[in-house]
User: Fold these one by one.
Assistant:
Number 1:
Amino acid sequence: YGKRIVQIKVIDDTTTLTTGDGKIYFCIPVDLNGYNLVDADAFVSTVSSSGLPTVQIHNLTQAADMLVTNLIEIDANEYTSYTAATAPDIDTNNDDVATGDILRVDVDVAGTGAKGLGVILEFQLP
């Protein structure tokens, strides 16, 4: 109950995934004020032949990573993180968002040959 899903296309389907902070920035709208991040997933349009594409969600406004220990990982030869061997670990000390917060998507590991990137973030009222 009270869940909202935000899906963001970070990198177009023909562009090879590379590492780096700030692949895309987006602003939290009024409708998500006071919500908590409860799930985070990612997808690619061309799979990585080796290595795990790995994504972090960073709240620029609060200067805090929203995922700890386990980030969003897409296993080699998989399109999505839904079946990843390791699920993302949301930092409950930094999972809340407010109107106007700027979130960014960081790519920590690109994998080999992966193309395109999207993230799916699920927010819920506490």
Number 2:
Amino acid sequence: LAITGVSGAGKSTLLHILGLVDAPTGGRYLYDGRDTGLMAAGEKAFIRNREIGFVFQFYHLFPEFNVLGNVLMPAMVGSSALAWIGRRGEYRRRARELIDRVGLGHRALHRSTRLSGGEMQRVAIARALMNRPRLLLADEPSGNLDVSTSAAIHDLLFELWGEGGMTLV
């Protein structure tokens, strides 16, 4: 699904509502048949971490982490210490697969601050996919990129969507 409109029309606000980051100021938003206005903050946080992936225009990578650490972040945040220890190898394999998939296997141990804009956006996509989201929200994912890198980002997103099991907005 593509949402278009002029600057200031509310596209990002809508994505934030869909992603349970913000609440609507009127009406109701049903996520998977449940009224989000009745959900506790913890339930929203759980859904955001487990079922929704975000790709933002400005990447929001952690500069102190390398590519692998940035991609692993959703799994770390969504796991208890015991679960993390028990599944760390599985998570690392998944992160490595995603990093390879976005064409950055050779950069997995580089800090995010040493990457180009296109590379940072590909890291952000891999991170958004880490927990196998049902819903991927991409807010102008190529807005700061050159034309050819932008096309490559769009091709990658459509390829991932085409594999099924995920809604892309």
Number 3:
Amino acid sequence: MQFHRGRLIDHIHLRARDLEASKRFYRAVLTAIGRGDAIHEGETFFNADELWIDAADDYTSRVHLAFQAPDRETVTRFHAAGLEAGGRDSGAPGERSYHPGYFGAFLFDPDGNNVEAVHHGPGERSAESVVFTVT
């Protein structure tokens, strides 16, 4: 059996009530699965696979989940489809200042999680997907 895994998830951002407790927890579990070497700490806590954790100044949204999109048109379709399906606007499609070419749109899902679609601009992938074969 084979699975083709691309980059559906661009990044995940968790909002922590107690940042120090979250740092301890994620440092331990990421180290246990062999990913502790990719941890960076400062005002936020993150690893190289795009997991970000910071202190929540409010609890409007607990989770921020971003999907990769192949182009700007897909980002715009994502936003329209989400609104049509009951999502609430959290940021219309447009360029953001995160880096040149960053084009994103944001919605709150029915549970209040902040969901994004993002296109990072022109670029070239090293591979369309990673093939994982179950043996």
